[in-house]
Amino acid sequence: MVEIERVKTGIVGFDELVNGGFPKGNVILVSGATGCGKSTFGGQFVYNGANMFDEAGVYVTLEEDIDKIIKNFSLYGWNLKKEIEKGRLLFIQPELYKYDVLLSTIEDAVDKIGATRLVIDSLSLVGMYFKDPFQIRKSLLEFNRTIKRLGCTTLATSEVKEGTGELSTFGVEEFVVDGIVLLYLIKKENLFVRAITVRKMRGTAHSTRIHPLMMGANGLEVYPTEELFTAMP
């Protein structure tokens, strides 16, 4: 029996949901509505890779400014500056004017620091290069193949409309990735409760339950032994 090589996220409680970590080289969609913690999940993945596992990571931001991203992540006590100076962490913000340039910029960044972890925030904006649904699907398939060739374990965030039950922005991303992690904000009486579930993960058994998620002082924390009993959209 072939043993699966795994990439630990280092996010408290999460790796227990995927038998110890993501299968190495997988491309995983991290989906959820605004404010669910998608960017934090991605940031914690690359930061923990550098800080805890000595694995270089690239964070590609296609929306927020790099300075703002770093400032927000630093609020969790993450010493991003140290990892950046050591060459184990690289934040880039490619120009959104040409699809081919975007791909080459990501490839160059990965090669520059020998990254094995990659975050694309967000995949939703990649599809904005094209108007025709067929071209969107084709471009996302091409994007997925390109990322696979880099050999990184990759997280790509995707914005979805709250309460729709959708898995991605364009409705095709979920078919081209290896895994899907869904983040929720569930309204319970007069407050919102965070939750997480692994909807799909090729190459490994995983929890199919909905687990509580907390955004604490050091980042996200998952409660793998607890469940949320609620009807989800």
Describe what this molecule looks like in 3D.
The structure is a single chain. With 233 residues, this protein is an alpha/beta fold. The protein has a domain at 24-183: Rossmann fold, CATH 3.40.50.300. Helices cover 31% and strands 27% of the residues. The chain has seven helices and eleven strands. The protein has helices spanning 38-53, 66-74, 80-85, 99-113, 123-126, 133-150, 173-176; strands at 6-7, 22-23, 27-32, 57-61, 89-92, 117-121, 153-159, 179-188, 191-201, 211-216, 219-222. The strands form two sheets. Strands 5-4-6-7-3-8-9-10-11 form a nine-stranded mixed beta sheet, with helices on both faces. A two-stranded antiparallel ribbon has the order 1-2. A hairpin with a 2-residue loop joins strand 8 and strand 9. The protein is globular and about 45 Å long. The chain starts with 5 loop residues before the first strand and ends in an 11-residue tail after the last strand. The mean pLDDT is 89.
